[in-house]
């Protein structure tokens, strides 16, 4: 073979060998890269699996199995008690005091369960809401009234914010105060306080009836009669009427038109009683309440017109159009008569108890008023003397 051809052949073989080596190197590098990527993926999944197993077993150690036979009866009982306690606190808060703002309170109180049937044994209660300045001078009478009827009533006190007095633990008024704000007579703050009382009372799902009272109010019958009267009533008790006089229609502000017209305008007693449906409607009102607050100012008194007007216009079927709290306006003036110790006689109280005619659940009745006001603190002793016999209170 000629030397020239041999040289060409050698160069070709060397070139082909280099190509094979390069190809082999590239192939090996590709395999190594794939192995590296696959290793990273496997390692990541392994870490997640180990982490999940650690969390799983640590959670099992932290929270024993619900149906473990190794649980002691005490532990099972404690778990059951904690669950029941949580539900109880939700449906019936034990403490009246809380840190909610008025806006938060109204929102919370306006909640209505979507399931009608209660998941607990519900005994309807009457919420007694006292709008007061401070102490209740007639508290011993009310203590006598409530005695022996625990579980059928709730008590709420709205006082001046600076009032911090707490009665003894033996009193039904012990720790019954709610977070309160300043109230001015004739101003919208009076309605604020009433709505605040209603909202706090609505937090207890067993409260079915809500009655507003003052520190000068007294009950005219024993607890059983009043409880049955309210619980069995088909309607709420809120007085409302059309008063054509300047102290009635004359207080209407044309700026409330067209939402509230002059023909809608009503007047009534501040002291009302409401069932749960009406109470929910009142605390949920965010449309008409601001309208009254902005346009019903003295000589327009919001506590005499807001509820009578709004309830008559939007929920007329919920009220009997009368109050159950007797007040004497016969002496004239801006305030009702105040009764003193010499006024308290059996005949005087009996006239308030049975001296009127009204309609109750569609039938005629002589029991029209369950409460009365305004009684001076010096009436306490004569009231305590007549209460056991006349009012049927347990001594």
Automatic annotation (TrEMBL):
<dbReference type="InterPro" id="IPR003406">
    <property type="entry name" value="Glyco_trans_14"/>
</dbReference>
<dbReference type="GO" id="GO:0016757">
    <property type="term" value="F:glycosyltransferase activity"/>
</dbReference>
<keyword id="KW-1133">Transmembrane helix</keyword>
<keyword id="KW-0808">Transferase</keyword>
<feature type="transmembrane region" description="Helical">
    <location>
        <begin position="21"/>
        <end position="42"/>
    </location>
</feature>
<keyword id="KW-0812">Transmembrane</keyword>
<keyword id="KW-0328">Glycosyltransferase</keyword>
<dbReference type="InterPro" id="IPR044174">
    <property type="entry name" value="BC10-like"/>
</dbReference>
<dbReference type="Pfam" id="PF02485">
    <property type="entry name" value="Branch"/>
</dbReference>
<keyword id="KW-0325">Glycoprotein</keyword>
<protein>
    <submittedName>
        <fullName>Uncharacterized protein LOC105160693</fullName>
    </submittedName>
</protein>
<keyword id="KW-0472">Membrane</keyword>
<dbReference type="GO" id="GO:0016020">
    <property type="term" value="C:membrane"/>
</dbReference>
């Amino acid at each position: 073979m000629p030397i020239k051809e041999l040289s060409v052949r050698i160069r070709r073989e060397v070139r082909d060998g280099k190509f094979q080596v390069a190809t082999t190197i590239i192939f090996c590098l590709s395999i190594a890269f794939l192995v590296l990527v696959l290793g990273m993926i496997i390692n990541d999944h392994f870490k997640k699996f180990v982490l999940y197993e650690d969390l799983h077993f640590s959670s099992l150690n932290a929270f024993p199995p619900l149906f473990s036979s190794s649980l002691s009866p005490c532990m099972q009982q404690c778990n059951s008690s904690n669950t029941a306690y949580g539900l109880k606190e939700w449906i019936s808060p034990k403490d009246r005091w809380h840190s909610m703002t008025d806006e938060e309170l109204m929102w919370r109180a306006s909640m209505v369960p979507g399931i009608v049937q209660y998941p607990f044994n519900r005994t309807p209660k009457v919420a007694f809401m006292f709008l007061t300045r401070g102490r209740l001078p007639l508290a011993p009478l009310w203590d006598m009234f409530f005695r022996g009827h625990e579980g059928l009533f709730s008590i709420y006190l709205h006082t001046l914010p600076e009032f911090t007095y707490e009665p003894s633990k033996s009193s039904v008024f012990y720790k019954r105060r709610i977070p309160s704000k300043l109230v001015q007579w004739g101003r919208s703050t009076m309605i604020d306080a009433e709505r605040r009382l209603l909202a706090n009372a609505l937090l207890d799902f067993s409260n079915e009836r809500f009655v507003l009272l003052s520190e000068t109010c007294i009950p005219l019958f024993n607890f059983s009669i009043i409880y049955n009267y309210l619980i069995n009533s088909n309607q709420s008790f809120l007085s409302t009427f059309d008063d054509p006089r300047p102290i009635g229609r004359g207080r209407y502000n044309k700026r409330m038109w067209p939402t509230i017209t002059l023909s809608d305008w009503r007047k009534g007693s501040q002291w009302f009683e409401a069932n749960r449906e009406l109470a929910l409607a009142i605390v949920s009102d965010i449309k008409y309440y601001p309208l009254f607050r902005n346009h019903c100012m003295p000589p327009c008194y919001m506590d005499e017109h807001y509820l009578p007007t709004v309830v008559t216009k939007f929920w007329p079927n919920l009220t009997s159009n009368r109050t159950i709290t007797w007040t004497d306006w016969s002496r004239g003036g801006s305030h009702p008569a105040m009764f003193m110790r010499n006024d308290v006689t059996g005949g005087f109280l009996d006239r308030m108890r049975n001296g009127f005619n009204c309609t109750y659940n569609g039938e005629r009745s002589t029991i029209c008023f369950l409460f009365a006001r305004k009684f001076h603190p010096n009436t306490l002793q004569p009231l305590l003397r007549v209460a056991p016999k006349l009012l049927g209170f347990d001594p």
